[in-house]
Amino acid sequence: MYFFLCNLSVLDIGFASVSTPKMLANLWGQSRVISLGGCMSQVFFLHFLGCTECLLYTVMAFDRYVAICHPLRYLVIMNWRVCAILTAGTWITSSFHATILTSLTFTLPYCGTNVIDYFFCDIFPVVKLACADTYVIETVSFTNVGMVPMTCFLLILMSYVRIIYSILKMNSAEGRRKAASTCASHLTVVTLFFGPSALIYTQPQLSEVLVTPVQIFGDVVSPMLNPVIYTLRNKEVKGALRKLRWGQKTAR
């Protein structure tokens, strides 16, 4: 679990760094210019890190499934080799995904305005500036951006259906509580990740008033909440916080 959480923490740092520094620079300064290379980097890393995080949540759901449904075989099934292969697979698959989308986006001819009507470079705001038929890139984008999260979400859902079934079969109330507590953090971060993504990419007609706050929440707030969610579910951290709080009260 901690091996996957280490990868998730790296993803959260990278994901929040894709658009936040440039957005803060635009708000602080007068210039709102971004270079072509910078725009391409934003598109690539947004989809690279977003797809990796999506796949990693699916791998983590499988990890929880094995831990709860096959606890005696957990160390055999989820050995270091399997964990490394699953994690490497998420990064490699996502790199292909992002490379295809970025290549298709920036091989289009752009001969009109160069003003992006958004707070950072994403595929759909950039493609609007193209002066050619964008059917291919729009189809590929909707397919990739739609199919990958949907497939991951369905796999996660299937894992948790099996997990809930196993929890309900447990005779011990303490065992059920521990099993549910094990999954609570993962379910919370999955909801925070898939919620904004579903609103943005499945609702193209979402008003401009709503789409920017939803995107900012998904890109900035969610990566900040993930460490808090997982930290507060950790018994050792809870114990350290209680000791710290008790020490402060004693000092007073």
- Name the poorly predicted regions: none
The count of DSSP E runs of length 2 or more, i.e. the number of strands, is 0
Helix proportion of residues, in percent?
over 70%
How would you classify the quaternary structure? Answer: single chain
- Most strands sheet: none
Strand content: under 5%
Labels describing this entry:
252 residues; single chain; mainly alpha
What does this protein look like?
The protein has 252 residues and is an all-alpha fold. The protein is 81% helix and 0% strand. Helix 6 packs antiparallel against helix 7 (173-202). The model has no long low-confidence stretch (mean pLDDT 83).
List the helices and strands and how they pair.
Elements: H1 2-28, H2 36-69, H3 74-77, H4 80-106, H5 123-127, H6 135-169, H7 173-202, H8 208-232, H9 235-251
Task: Summarize, please.
This protein has 252 residues and is mainly α. It has helices spanning 2-28, 36-69, 74-77, 80-106, 123-127, 135-169, 173-202, 208-232, 235-251.
